[in-house]
Amino acid sequence: MKLTTLTGISPKKAEALTKEGISTTQDLLFFFPRRYLDRSNVVPISQLRGIGEEVTVAGTVQSVEEQGFKAKKRLEVVVKDETAGMKAVWFKGAYYLKKRFKVGQKLALFGTAKQYGRHISMAHPETDILSSESDLSEFSKIVAIYPSGKHFHEARIHNAHIQSWIQQILDQSQLTECLPQSILERFELPSRDQAIRDIHTPSSHLAHQRALRRFKFEELFFFQLSMEHIHQQRSDSNRGPKLVETKPRTNTYFNQNLPFELTDGQKQALSDIKNDVQSGKQMNRLIQGDVGAGKTVVAMGALLMAVDNGYQGALVAPTEILAEQHFQSLQESFKGLDVNIRLLVGGQKTTLRRDVLTALEGGQCDIVVGTHAVIQNSVHFHRLGMVVIDEQHRFGVQQRAELLNKADHPHMLVMSATPIPRSLAMSLYADLDISIIKGLPKGRKPIRTAIRSDKRREDVYSFVESELSNGGQVYIIYPLIEESEVMDLKDATAGFEKMTQRFPSFRVELLHGRIPAEEKDRIMKDFAAGLVHILVSTTVIEVGVNVPNASIMIIEHAERFGLSQLHQLRGRIGRGSRQSYCILMPDHAVSESGAVRLKTMEKTNDGFEIAEVDLKLRGPGDFLGTKQSGLPEFKYADILQDQDLLKEAKREARAILAEDPQLTHHEYSNLKRFFEPYHERKKKFYGLA
């Protein structure tokens, strides 16, 4: 229904609402309050003396004045209720904020009230304009306070307007239920109609909490129902290549070429893959494992299974450096197995690229290793049977779909180099089966991590000297932040010169982004060969070569690194039989979150535990990176706070589809009507429409 059908919404106000994403009355009904003003908790201004804590007050604006001079101007707004008056003070943005307030306005203010001499003031409070007409006493006990976008201010849309419009919708209509009655009863959820009323006009905090829980469950349930349906659809209809297990190359690789014994976690992951590829159905599996857990060995086995059965394999990595490392690693591991491996990256010469594309299409290339270049339209396979994606969180869902379209339902194996907590994996990878590799390969010793202040730097260097004398090698890492590249490079260069002077008997090299590619390769090869003893570097990816002899990593300005970045860096050592040490050297001033990151690193080597802390510190969006296009957006649910609800929603969705895959039972008639358009949007997103 159009917004202009509601009393009080002019075309100008309707346009402002549309600019804020509210185009219909249904949109307005699901425009939820951002908080509530509980009249029973509004503190009279006369009682604020000496409180010094966060409170809500409500009153009428008596004056709006700018005080001070030029850049130091502040805005003071005097608000008075029936008991006394107080000041709201803003020390920034006085000129712009002044336009918002007018004498006679009714305001609700939320913030910390403090007493200064005889006066009470509140610095930078949250404010809500309650109404320009009504007296405060007319408000109900719990008042919904709605988000207020800039277009609302321009069109003079106040909180009271939104309340009035939403009440009109509630008076004129009733929401149709979409969840089965059995679910409502089992989880003690209110009906959809009652829940929407308790969101906008709650009779109590408990009623509001029950209503919000209902909409969270509904959102998670529909998402999980769609994911289960997609999973079921793939399993039932997508006939993947049937790969027979006992083949010569695979057997030779695991029984003769591997210089170590597989861990239990690797064996289980390989068993999961074998069961998938022998079933005749398309595999869609995620391999999660900690740094150094041996995910790549498992991926190599999967690629060989495809080659052994006459199919081609593709290994896709997010960067050229990582792709080149995989290419070299596969060539080394598959020596003597008669496997043609080619590299396909963006910067190749035209003749070489054309040669690789011809070999792929003609079937002469067994395995291609590359970057996003493999996904391009110009790339055609002869008989693609296995796709492996490394660093899955760097690729969007649509890119996965594009790779799958390169052939007739090839098997898909994705690897997450960053451990992702199960709570997030259940949402992000809900369309995949998950295998987790726990534990380190035999012979690996847990890395010891310590935080050391600058005062103990000489002790650290003495320890480094003894380790170098015993044949060890050392990484010294400096952060690289784009905004301050010059400063960081100066830090690393100064560090390099310092190390050269401090350790004159050992060879020290410097690595950073401005060094020519050939020089970088030479330095890294020399470091891997043991010819370089100390490597000073500004970047993470450039130290990605596997050097088993490297036993110490010193991370300078450690507080400037993210938690998962620190863990990934630390994973570059501890790859041989030597005891390895990671030494974190922060600056003097460390923020509270910085201290949590460093202490977490010192406490544990478990990447999954570290990821849980990192996720709580940063939230899902930042944890995965802003470019991650596969993260589902939930409007009401929080996948960190609502993990239990997420699991329950998944369990219910799975049970319903197991019983009635097409939702034909009469109890599911409304569910089906609501679910089908939602599911079509999801299928399109996952490249299945």
What would you note in describing this structure?
The chain has 689 residues and is α/β, with parallel strands linked by helices. The chain folds into five domains: 1-34 and 147-173; 35-145, OB fold (Dihydrolipoamide Acetyltransferase, E2P) (Beta Barrel), CATH 2.40.50; 248-437, P-loop containing nucleotide triphosphate hydrolases (Rossmann fold); 448-604, P-loop containing nucleotide triphosphate hydrolases (Rossmann fold); 643-685, no CATH class. Helix content is 41%, strand content 18%. It contains 23 helices and 21 strands. The strands form four sheets. A seven-stranded parallel beta sheet has the order 11-12-10-13-14-9-15, sandwiched between helices. A six-stranded parallel beta sheet has the order 16-21-20-17-19-18, with helices on both faces. A five-stranded mixed barrel has the order 2-3-4-6-5. α9 (248-257) packs antiparallel against α11 (295-308). It starts with 10 loop residues before the first helix and ends with a helix. The mean pLDDT is 85.
